[in-house]
Amino acid sequence: MIGRLAGIILHRAMDQVLIDVRGVGYIVHVSSRTAAALPPVGQATALYTELLVREDLLQLFGFTTLQEKEWHRLLVSVQGVGAKAALAILGTLGPDALCRWAARSASIWPQPMR
Q1: Of 57, 55, 53, 48, nearest in space to 19 by CA
Q2: Domains in the chain, start-ordered, CATH in brackets?
Q3: pTM value?
Q4: CB pairs under 8 A, 24+ apart, for 96-100?
Protein backbone atom coordinates (compact mmCIF):
# COMPACT_ATOMS: atom_id res chain seq x y z
CA MET A 1 0.00 0.00 0.00
CA ILE A 2 1.17 3.53 -0.73
CA GLY A 3 0.06 5.58 2.29
CA ARG A 4 1.80 8.89 1.61
CA LEU A 5 3.72 10.61 -1.17
CA ALA A 6 6.07 13.56 -0.87
CA GLY A 7 7.69 15.16 -3.89
CA ILE A 8 7.62 17.92 -6.48
CA ILE A 9 4.50 18.78 -8.45
CA LEU A 10 5.18 18.34 -12.18
CA HIS A 11 1.62 18.91 -13.45
CA ARG A 12 -1.70 20.00 -11.98
CA ALA A 13 -5.23 19.53 -13.26
CA MET A 14 -8.66 20.01 -11.70
CA ASP A 15 -8.92 16.35 -10.66
CA GLN A 16 -5.37 15.03 -10.56
CA VAL A 17 -1.76 15.95 -9.92
CA LEU A 18 1.50 14.42 -11.13
CA ILE A 19 4.07 14.22 -8.34
CA ASP A 20 7.73 13.38 -8.94
CA VAL A 21 9.07 11.28 -6.07
CA ARG A 22 12.80 10.82 -6.66
CA GLY A 23 12.42 10.28 -10.39
CA VAL A 24 9.15 8.35 -10.39
CA GLY A 25 6.02 10.24 -11.42
CA TYR A 26 2.80 9.32 -9.64
CA ILE A 27 -0.59 10.39 -10.96
CA VAL A 28 -2.78 11.08 -7.94
CA HIS A 29 -6.52 11.74 -8.23
CA VAL A 30 -7.67 14.54 -5.92
CA SER A 31 -10.85 16.42 -5.05
CA SER A 32 -11.32 19.96 -6.30
CA ARG A 33 -10.81 21.16 -2.71
CA THR A 34 -7.48 19.34 -2.44
CA ALA A 35 -6.35 20.55 -5.89
CA ALA A 36 -7.04 24.15 -4.88
CA ALA A 37 -4.98 23.73 -1.69
CA LEU A 38 -1.88 22.38 -3.47
CA PRO A 39 1.13 24.58 -4.19
CA PRO A 40 2.01 25.54 -7.78
CA VAL A 41 3.93 23.39 -10.26
CA GLY A 42 7.59 23.06 -9.28
CA GLN A 43 6.90 23.22 -5.54
CA ALA A 44 7.11 20.43 -2.98
CA THR A 45 3.98 18.80 -1.62
CA ALA A 46 2.89 15.78 0.40
CA LEU A 47 -0.39 13.88 0.22
CA TYR A 48 -1.84 10.99 2.16
CA THR A 49 -2.90 8.38 -0.35
CA GLU A 50 -5.24 5.47 -0.84
CA LEU A 51 -4.39 2.90 -3.50
CA LEU A 52 -7.35 1.41 -5.35
CA VAL A 53 -6.48 -1.99 -6.84
CA ARG A 54 -8.74 -3.60 -9.38
CA GLU A 55 -8.19 -6.39 -11.86
CA ASP A 56 -7.22 -4.01 -14.67
CA LEU A 57 -6.50 -0.77 -12.82
CA LEU A 58 -4.30 0.82 -10.16
CA GLN A 59 -5.34 4.31 -9.03
CA LEU A 60 -3.97 6.56 -6.32
CA PHE A 61 -6.25 9.01 -4.53
CA GLY A 62 -4.68 11.85 -2.57
CA PHE A 63 -5.76 13.81 0.50
CA THR A 64 -4.33 16.71 2.46
CA THR A 65 -5.43 15.29 5.84
CA LEU A 66 -5.94 11.87 7.35
CA GLN A 67 -9.51 12.91 8.22
CA GLU A 68 -10.25 13.48 4.53
CA LYS A 69 -8.72 10.10 3.68
CA GLU A 70 -10.86 8.32 6.27
CA TRP A 71 -14.03 10.01 5.00
CA HIS A 72 -13.15 8.82 1.50
CA ARG A 73 -12.81 5.25 2.79
CA LEU A 74 -16.18 5.50 4.55
CA LEU A 75 -17.93 6.95 1.50
CA VAL A 76 -16.54 4.26 -0.80
CA SER A 77 -17.87 1.59 1.56
CA VAL A 78 -21.42 2.79 0.82
CA GLN A 79 -23.04 0.68 -1.90
CA GLY A 80 -23.17 2.62 -5.17
CA VAL A 81 -20.54 5.22 -4.20
CA GLY A 82 -17.33 4.81 -6.17
CA ALA A 83 -13.93 6.34 -5.50
CA LYS A 84 -14.43 9.28 -7.86
CA ALA A 85 -17.94 9.99 -6.58
CA ALA A 86 -16.53 10.02 -3.04
CA LEU A 87 -13.92 12.56 -4.19
CA ALA A 88 -16.66 14.72 -5.67
CA ILE A 89 -18.59 14.62 -2.40
CA LEU A 90 -15.48 15.56 -0.44
CA GLY A 91 -14.67 18.32 -2.91
CA THR A 92 -18.13 19.80 -2.52
CA LEU A 93 -18.73 19.38 1.21
CA GLY A 94 -15.33 18.83 2.78
CA PRO A 95 -14.69 16.62 5.81
CA ASP A 96 -16.03 19.11 8.37
CA ALA A 97 -19.42 19.44 6.67
CA LEU A 98 -19.62 15.66 6.34
CA CYS A 99 -19.01 15.32 10.09
CA ARG A 100 -21.83 17.78 10.84
CA TRP A 101 -24.16 15.98 8.41
CA ALA A 102 -23.37 12.58 9.91
CA ALA A 103 -23.95 13.86 13.45
CA ARG A 104 -27.33 15.37 12.49
CA SER A 105 -28.37 12.30 10.51
CA ALA A 106 -27.48 9.88 13.29
CA SER A 107 -29.84 11.68 15.65
CA ILE A 108 -32.86 11.35 13.33
CA TRP A 109 -32.34 7.85 11.92
CA PRO A 110 -33.99 4.96 13.77
CA GLN A 111 -31.63 3.09 16.03
CA PRO A 112 -31.20 -0.68 15.49
CA MET A 113 -33.14 -2.94 17.82
CA ARG A 114 -31.10 -4.79 20.40
Answers
A1: 48
A2: 4-108 (2.40.50.140)
A3: 0.81
A4: 98/71
